[in-house]
Write a structure and sequence with these properties.
Layout lengths: L7 H14 L13 H8 L12 H20 L10 H26 L1
Helix pairs in contact: 3-4
Protein name: Transmembrane protein
Keywords: Membrane, Transmembrane, Transmembrane helix
């Protein structure tokens, strides 16, 4: 004697499997031939690229010129002792000139 039991879980899994294995019925996709041309025509016109402005380099060169002028103005008044204020300023100007020269040389090596 065979009993036919009704199992809703098995029916649900069978229905799920059937629906997953069925391929979708979609109409074929058609892209118009002039689609790309219409997209390009609708885009705004590209601006021409501007050249890069090297403001930092120009400012560093101007600063070096100004520091060199300050160095030549201070040189006759500086006595080589650390007690002299003009000598101290002259050393600071020399350090700044060296730092700017180093920065310009490393920046030129990277470019």
């Amino acid at each position: 004697m065979t009993t036919n039991t009704h199992n809703p879980q098995e029916e649900f899994e069978a229905a799920m499997t059937r629906s997953l294995e069925r391929s979708p019925e979609l109409p074929p996709l058609a892209i118009p031939a002039d689609f790309a041309a219409r997209v390009v025509a609708s885009l705004p016109q590209q601006r021409t690229a501007r050249p890069a402005v090297r403001v930092g380099r120009i400012a560093a060169i101007v600063a070096m010129v100004v520091l060199a002028i300050v160095l030549f103005v201070l040189a006759p008044h500086a006595s080589p002792s650390f007690a002299s204020f003009t000598f101290d300023i002259e050393l600071i100007v020399l350090a700044q000139l060296g730092a700017i020269a180093y920065w310009l040389s490393t920046k030129a090596a990277r470019s």
